[in-house]
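Aim 2, interim progress: modelling of the nickel (II) ion-bound target.
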Amino acid sequence: MRLRIVKYGDPVLETPCEPVPEGEFGTPELRSLVSDMFETMYAASGVGLAAPQVGISRRLTVIDCTGGEDRSAKVVLVNPTILSGEGEQVGEEGCLSIPGFRENVARPSTVRVRAFTVDGEEQELESEELLARVICHECDHLDGVLFLEHISRFKREWIKRKIRNLKKRGEWD
Ligand code: NI
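Predicted structure of the complex, ligand included:
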């Protein structure tokens, strides 16, 4: 089932998420949420989607940098923690909750993350390039942080002003 993607302005996007409780690991509800999140992300042509973006304030994110081309590229991170980030890459970033706006953002070039699988198995993942960027972006979402926080205040205010105008015209909800 496709879920509604929450847009910038909804407080859920700027609220730190609660961990997925251990008791929910492996449940049909968690599995179906993950599968709905993948479906929603693919339909929106995204490469990552975090639970708060579908209005659920839980530390859960789905990622696929191939956009569905390669099933083995599917990544699910439950209660992730970034262990380390090294180097720097600068590249354009967007967000399904802030459609139409893209800006250059600096991120570590390699990132090591620890997370649980849907079944509650602990895993560690080493990532680089786009995957490292997406992991940082999605883990930020779980802390209530948007990519707008990583760009200059000038650009941020410009984007916020544009969004306010879109809202006034009823083109942002
Ligand atoms: Ni995003």
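The mean pLDDT is 97. The chain is about 25% helix and 25% strand.
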